[in-house]
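Residues determine shape. Take a concrete instance:
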Amino acid sequence: MILCLADVLTAEAVAELLSLTAGGSWTDGTRTAGWAAREVKRNRQLAKGTAAAEAAAIVRAGLEAHQVFRAASLVRRMRDPMFARYEAGEEYGLHVDDALMGSGPDPLRTDLSVTVFLSPPSAYDGGELVLDSPAGEQTIKLDAGSAVLYPSTFLHRVAPVTRGERRVAVTWVQSLVRSVEQRAILFDLDQARRDLFAREGRSPAFDLIAKSYANLLRLWAES
C-alpha cells in the first residue's frame, strides 16, 4: 500500500526545518548507504549534531500527530529522520532499503519507508521518487510538508535533479503488524469505523466494526 499524506508538517514547521538545517554540516550521502547502494547514491546528508536532532524531532512529531500515518503504519518503532539534499546532477539510483537498521542486539526491521518533502515542486526539476510497485512504476513528487509512506520491500530510486534543489527527510518504521496485507485490512477497517462514527455516532454497526478491528489487531500484532 502506497499512501500520500498531506499536511504532515505545517508551512511554519517546514520553514523552521529549512532554517535549522541550512547552517548544518552536509556530508557525502554514501556514508549511510549499504555496500551496494553506495554505487548509485549521489546526494548529501545532514551530519549528526544539534541541528539534525532538533530537526528530526520536528519531523517525528509531525508524523506521530498525523492520524492517517498512525492508522496506516501502526508504528512499533521509528528511526530518527535523516535529511538529504539533491542539487542538479545528483540522484539515487535503483535500490532497496536495508532490511535491518541500527547497531546492537535489537536492530529496527524496516517494514515501511517514509519520505517527507521539504522543497515545493516548483523549486526543482526532476528529483521524483520512483517506486517499482507491483502495479508498475509510480512517480511521486509532493508539496512541501507532505509525505509518502510505502513498503520498504519496493525497489525505488530518486530521479536525477536537473534544476534547483530537492530537500527531504526520510525515515523508516517497524510496524506492530509485519504483513502488508494485514496492515491494509486494518487500515480499511479503521477508516470505515471513523467514517461511520462521524456520520452516525455509536451504533450496532460501529460496534461490530470496532470489535473486528480490535480483535484482528490483537490477533496480528507483535508484542
